[in-house]
From TrEMBL:
The keyword Metal-binding applies. Residues 14-269 form the Peptidase M14 domain. Its cofactor is Zn(2+). The lineage of its organism: Bacteria, Pseudomonadati, Pseudomonadota, Gammaproteobacteria, Alteromonadales. GO terms for molecular function: hydrolase activity, acting on ester bonds; metallocarboxypeptidase activity; zinc ion binding. The active site is at E244. It comes from the Bacteria. Keywords: Hydrolase, Metal-binding, Zinc. Gene3D superfamilies: Zn peptidases (3.40.630.10). This is Peptidase M14 domain-containing protein. PROSITE patterns: PEPTIDASE_M14. Belongs to the peptidase M14 family.
Length: 274
């Protein structure tokens, strides 16, 4: 089965008391969390008439791990951005003594507002991230949002040096799985911890193929393409994960699962203070 780029998906969230496509509510709640946590807020560019934000924990320090969480590349995969908002709402500033956290909360706002996969120009925001002779480069299929991210490649490469988590969903599935990247021949603790965080909420996908990639024990391992996460791992991020929550399950469960994956990611890679 293939995912239709303009089929629309809208769900109701009881957690946030709104529809999954309510972008006004999303940005207003995000502004509250940004303010409460004292996050630095930078507009990387305009996607349609919406800002493409990068948020960063205050007082970033040398010596702490640099972790990046991104969400909302595909507009119908709405539990990523809402899950990120839920994750932020549970944080206090203590975490920022352990980690330099950066967040791309909503990469494809025009798709999110409509509840469809691609952006309003019909482009796929998670394709077209190329590296040529060590330099970040767009290609013929790079989206408007992708070009904005590539213009800030160095900033994002630094921000993801110790890990990238990008939160996607699979609207065709009732089960969960992860794409992971580790510098090893087989999935290790990083891959398994993230899979298991999602496995608290949904069944883990049976072995087989998803989009022509082999899934084994819920993990698609070290699969390189022109996605954002592949790009950052090629650029030097130590580990990477693209989480896939199942769009056939209730939205609020998916929101909680995304927040749990973010918690696991951060806590695994940012050591506790002694
Ligand atoms: Zn996706």
């Amino acid at each position: 089965m293939s995912r239709s780029p303009f089929q629309t998906f809208v769900w109701r969230s009881e957690i946030f008391e709104c529809q999954s496509t309510d972008i006004q509510r999303f940005y207003s709640l995000l502004a509250i969390e940004t303010e409460r946590l004292g996050l630095g807020s930078k507009i990387l560019g305009q996607a349609g008439h919406h800002p493409l934000y990068l948020l960063q924990s205050p007082g970033q320090k040398a010596g702490l791990p640099n972790l990046l969480i991104s969400a909302g590349f595909h507009g119908e995969e709405s539990a990523g951005p809402w899950g990120l908002l839920h994750f932020l709402s549970q944080l206090d500033g203590e975490l920022f003594k352990r980690v330099n956290l950066s967040v791309l909360p909503l990469v494809n706002p025009t798709g999110f507002a409509k509840g469809h996969r691609f952006n309003e120009l019909g482009e796929n925001p998670n394709r077209g991230f190329f590296i040529e002779n060590g330099k970040a480069k767009p290609g013929a299929d790079t989206s408007a949002e992708g070009r904005i991210l590539l213009e800030h490649a160095h900033l994002l490469q630094v921000a993801s040096r110790d890990g990238i988590l990008t939160c996607h969903e699979d609207v065709l599935m009732t089960d969960t799985y992860v794409y992971t990247f580790e510098p090893s021949q087989a999935p290790g603790r990083f891959s398994h911890s993230l899979r298991d965080a999602l496995g608290q909420y949904f069944p883990i996908a049976a072995d087989g193929d998803v989009d022509n990639c082999p899934v084994r024990s819920g993990v698609i391992f070290n699969h390189f393409d022109t996605s954002f996460e592949s790009f950052l791992v090629r650029s030097g991020a130590r580990v990477g994960c693209c989480s896939e929550t199942p769009g056939q399950q209730p939205l609020d469960q998916r929101i909680l699962a995304n927040a749990a994956a973010m918690n696991t990611f951060v806590n695994m890679l940012a050591p506790e203070l002694s």
